[in-house]
Specification:
119 residues; mainly alpha; 54% helix; globular
């Protein structure tokens, strides 16, 4: 695998140059995705709503750690919550995040397999 990064124009590239505020927020959001446990949680939620117990089983981390990660994602506005009795159910806020997680995992798959990524 080549160490060079190949950049090609994205078909759905952002239509204008981002400002400093937009770049800062995007970097903050990407940093949240840079944690393996949070990425696992977001991937699990891309399949639908789930509670903390279910998500703990999916990512294999301790329940308090999962709760802390979910709190960070909620405070960042990436996930929503609703009460179902005593349970708190989590969901992705919107499809943008689902696509971002899917693209990151797809890129990782291509890198691991040695195949070039396609737009």
């Amino acid at each position: 695998m080549s160490a060079r990064t190949h950049l090609s124009p994205a078909h759905d590239a952002h239509p204008r140059d981002p400002g400093e505020e937009q770049l800062a927020l995007a970097a903050e959001l990407l940093a949240l995705l840079g944690d393996r446990t949070r990425l696992t949680l977001l991937h699990a939620l891309s399949g639908g709503e789930a509670d903390v117990s279910t998500l703990t089983g999916v990512c294999g981390a301790a329940r308090p750690a999962v709760s802390q990660h979910l709190a960070r994602l909620r405070l960042a506005g990436l996930v929503t919550t609703r009460k179902e009795g005593r349970r708190v159910v989590y969901a992705l806020r919107d499809g943008h995040l689902r696509r971002l997680v899917d693209e990151a995992l797809s890129l990782a798959d291509h890198r691991l397999s040695g195949r070039p990524a396609h737009d």
